[in-house]
Amino acid sequence: MGHPLLYSAQVLWVLWCAYPARAGVVEDFNHMERCKDSLYMGTPPRGYLTANLKKICQRYEDKPRYVTLYDPRKHIPVYSAYTFKKSDGEKHLASEKGGNNMEPFPQTQMHMNFEDTQAVLEDYSDVVKYERGHLNPDEHQGDPLDKAATYTLTNIVPQIREFNTGPWSDQEGRVRKRLNNYCRGTAYVVTGTTTSGNMIRRDNIDRVAIPEYMWTAYCCTEFDHNAPYSVRYKFPVFGAYALNDHVNNHLVEVPIKNLERFLKGKLDVDRNFQIFYRDCVPDF
């Protein structure tokens, strides 16, 4: 869902500068302590071929919260991967401790330097038809600090307003209720985008890629085997995708293999593309 946005100046500053990272780009998600905890079996989606994608360990209040693969040319995240936390769905726009990490981006020359590699708030300021949509939504987090950590532009993509508040919002709520009620262990979620070349322009320059499709998948290997069949067959893993548009934006829920097959036709990935390690099939 799109909301008035606060985001981490510290994350963005470290992200593109050669300072020791308390947050920012890493060579591998295993590089930072607990960064890999956001990934099923500590393993990110595999098979992406596009060069120069940046692995980001998203931190808030000096703690890793989730991970993002970011495209510095298109200025949007490719995906965010996180662990779902049981939640009542209440939105939380800022932490009481928000002054430490989360704050409006500083209006300095440093601010301008980021524009080559990352979206900035100005890119969204005069855009009427799009909202800032989260990949890791705050309603999938229970702790106020985890919620606050989702409010960063590296976790944001432009979504058509009617899509963001309609089918995509409905799916976020549907998954939240399903995992709240029937997942008994840790649920891992990966939510991402595909693009087709359409861009938000500012000052006659292409600035931010507009997702063509949004997609998402969850993995929960410990679940309620007594759940109704209409729910039970969607465990331990299931996915969904939808067109980011005003019309024809009906969300389709599909088995993980179907989702991967669909995405292979939309993403620059190899034939071994896989969202979850071994497609979320647990070892017994």
Automatic annotation (TrEMBL):
<feature type="domain" description="ENPP1-3/EXOG-like endonuclease/phosphodiesterase">
    <location>
        <begin position="63"/>
        <end position="283"/>
    </location>
</feature>
<protein>
    <recommendedName>
        <fullName>Endonuclease domain-containing 1 protein-like</fullName>
    </recommendedName>
</protein>
<dbReference type="GO" id="GO:0046872">
    <property type="term" value="F:metal ion binding"/>
</dbReference>
<dbReference type="Pfam" id="PF01223">
    <property type="entry name" value="Endonuclease_NS"/>
</dbReference>
<dbReference type="GO" id="GO:0003676">
    <property type="term" value="F:nucleic acid binding"/>
</dbReference>
<dbReference type="InterPro" id="IPR020821">
    <property type="entry name" value="ENPP1-3/EXOG-like_nuc-like"/>
</dbReference>
<dbReference type="InterPro" id="IPR039015">
    <property type="entry name" value="ENDOD1"/>
</dbReference>
<dbReference type="GO" id="GO:0016787">
    <property type="term" value="F:hydrolase activity"/>
</dbReference>
<feature type="domain" description="DNA/RNA non-specific endonuclease/pyrophosphatase/phosphodiesterase">
    <location>
        <begin position="62"/>
        <end position="269"/>
    </location>
</feature>
<feature type="signal peptide">
    <location>
        <begin position="1"/>
        <end position="23"/>
    </location>
</feature>
<keyword id="KW-0732">Signal</keyword>
<dbReference type="InterPro" id="IPR044925">
    <property type="entry name" value="His-Me_finger_sf"/>
</dbReference>
<dbReference type="InterPro" id="IPR044929">
    <property type="entry name" value="DNA/RNA_non-sp_Endonuclease_sf"/>
</dbReference>
<dbReference type="InterPro" id="IPR001604">
    <property type="entry name" value="Endo_G_ENPP1-like_dom"/>
</dbReference>
